[in-house]
Q: What sequence folds into this?
């Protein structure tokens, strides 16, 4: 239970007390600052507490936005302030100063909430102020202003605004025009029945897994049902975020589920399609793994570029200016969002092609579309980086270093790498990755050439990260490392040419990719990278690449398949257990994905 302290004399006919109770607040009345201090001291330290001016006039959803959002330690709107336990001490100090001001307990409570907000600002507490748009939140000074405020409240449909704001502000064309117009009402239906975003997210995952199972049957009926279920899963995927925004049910667990389940659903569906194709006599596991690698590397490019530039100073370029200019022309915005093949367009394409064609055609279309999108976005970001005069921060450099996922071998060689005057990290990472992938591709299975290529890769890896990654193109280092590791596994498994090797490689890449996504979302939530012991335990990108090449050289094709499977299981267990422990802990950030379309 949260507590709201109403300051001042209640206004006859005001619905404020009822609105606060409907939001889950236990309402207490304070005649002056001294009463407010006494009531505040009586509220348990682990509860949210709000101080609200009794003269407040506004929409219930304005109060919801300003007083109940769990993502912020302190939030405020005109005439009201709310704090969570972490900001409680600052509020207590501010209230104590008010009650001890000249006049003592008789100090009037006019504008007390506003003064407390200003005191928290001065105390260094970050106070969130939601954008209300057409919603009303005001503290009228006289009856005339009160009547005007009440008329303004009546003129705006609170529920309509709440429904509109439940939809993500920036999304893809398909999601915006084909899903959100009705999924927001599904979100409201769920809210009125007490369902949580986590339950809807889980339902979306289960639906996608059933779709993957239908695709795995290899029958035309199974493919048709799989396509329909995949689209329904996507509707639920939109609904969970809209439900979270509609009811402000953000949570630590929800952040983890929302961040990782999209990838789990999509990649499980790839596996289902590959299994279905195999039942029909067509082996497309290499295409499925290639699609997963391409999609994962696309995301790493997005994450690395954004982390490198989100807090850079003097962060402008002619390319960015042209992009902003194009965004000012309405139709170009949607074209540019569609050609990057965000999740809505991508899943719609996969669903339709699954139902109407074959898994092989579906994967060909997916690979071509994603390759074009990756080329378009990466080229644009390279141009921005080369023409941008930006100074990147230490935080950005640390985030990129964490995203590289360098392990114990790179650490061991770092002391020697400092003596090498090499200052092109992206080129170094690309060269090392190209050597190991080409060696694996050109040499026959069982050759030691891939091992030599991996040794070269290991030796170059620390050279790419020995200095802070603050260069114009240094954000390319993590995606180059991801591509090198994943492609090496793919090529070696394909060269083994034995049933089960590519599915085992698919499982290994999926486990490692999960670890990399988990790293990204921890950094996004300002929680830092995964613990150092975990990175060391799973070997880092260079250690895993070397290990896989050595296994391919030492073992027969059948034994290599078994080794890949065992390695996939070991990595998956380690990263999943640690990830679940972190995201369900109280120390995880309460965030929800509001970024670019996935």
A:
């Amino acid at each position: 239970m949260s507590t709201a302290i109403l300051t001042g004399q209640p206004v006859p006919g005001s619905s404020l007390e009822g609105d606060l109770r409907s939001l889950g607040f236990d309402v207490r009345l304070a005649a002056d600052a001294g009463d407010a201090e006494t009531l505040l001291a009586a509220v348990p330290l682990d509860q949210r507490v709000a101080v609200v001016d009794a003269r407040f006039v506004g929409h219930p959803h304005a109060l919801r936005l300003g007083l109940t959002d769990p993502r912020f330690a302190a939030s405020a709107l005109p005439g009201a302030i709310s704090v969570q336990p972490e900001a409680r001490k600052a509020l207590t100090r501010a209230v104590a100063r008010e009650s001890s001001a000249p006049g003592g307990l008789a100090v009037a409570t006019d504008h007390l909430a506003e003064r407390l907000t200003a005191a928290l600002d001065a105390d260094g507490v970050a106070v969130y102020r939601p954008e209300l748009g057409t919603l009303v939140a005001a503290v009228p000074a006289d009856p005339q202003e009160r009547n005007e405020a009440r008329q303004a409240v009546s003129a705006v449909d609170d529920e309509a605004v709440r429904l509109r704001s439940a939809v993500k502000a920036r999304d893809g064309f398909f999601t915006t025009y084909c899903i959100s117009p009705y999924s927001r009402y599904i979100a409201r239906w769920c809210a009125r029945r007490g369902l949580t975003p986590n339950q809807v997210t889980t339902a979306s995952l289960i639906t996608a897994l059933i779709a993957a199972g239908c695709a795995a049957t290899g029958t035309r009926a199974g493919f048709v049902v799989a396509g329909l279920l995949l689209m329904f899963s996507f509707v639920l995927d939109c609904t969970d975020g809209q439900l979270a925004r509609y009811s402000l049910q953000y949570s630590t667990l929800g952040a983890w589920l929302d961040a990782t389940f999209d990838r789990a659903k999509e990649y499980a569906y790839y596996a289902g399609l590959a299994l279905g194709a195999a039942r029909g006599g067509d082996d497309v596991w290499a295409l499925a793994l290639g699609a997963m690698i391409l999609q994962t590397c696309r995301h790493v490019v997005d994450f690395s570029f954004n982390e490198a530039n989100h807090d850079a100073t003097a962060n402008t370029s002619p390319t960015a200016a042209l992009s902003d200019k194009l965004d000012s022309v309405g139709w170009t915005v949607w074209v540019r969002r569609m050609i990057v093949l965000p999740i809505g367009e991508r899943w719609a394409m996969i669903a339709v092609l699954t139902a109407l064609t074959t898994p092989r055609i579906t994967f060909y279309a997916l690979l071509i579309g994603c390759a074009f999108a990756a080329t378009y976005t990466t080229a644009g970001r390279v141009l921005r980086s080369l023409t941008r005069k930006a100074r990147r921060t230490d935080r950005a450099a640390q985030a990129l270093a964490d995203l590289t996922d360098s392990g114990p071998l790179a650490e061991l060689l770092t002391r020697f790498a400092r003596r090498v005057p090499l200052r092109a990290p992206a080129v170094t990472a690309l060269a090392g990755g190209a050597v190991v992938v080409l060696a694996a591709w050109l040499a026959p299975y069982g050759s030691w050439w891939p091992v030599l290529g991996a040794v070269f890769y290991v030796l170059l890896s620390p050279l790419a990260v020995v200095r802070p990654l603050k260069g114009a193109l240094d954000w390319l280092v993590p995606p180059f490392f991801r591509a090198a590791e994943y492609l090496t596994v793919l090529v070696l498994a394909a060269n083994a040419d034995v049933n089960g090797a590519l599915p085992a490689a698919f499982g290994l890449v999926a486990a490692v990719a999960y670890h990399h996504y988990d790293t990204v979302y921890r950094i996004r939530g300002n929680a830092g990278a995964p613990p150092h012991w975990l990175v060391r335990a799973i070997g880092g990108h260079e250690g895993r690449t070397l290990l896989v090449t050595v296994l391919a050289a030492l073992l027969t094709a059948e034994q290599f398949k078994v080794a890949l499977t065992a390695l996939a299981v070991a990595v998956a267990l380690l990263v999943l257990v640690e990830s679940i422990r972190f995201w369900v802990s109280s120390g995880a950030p309460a965030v929800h994905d509001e970024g670019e379309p996935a």
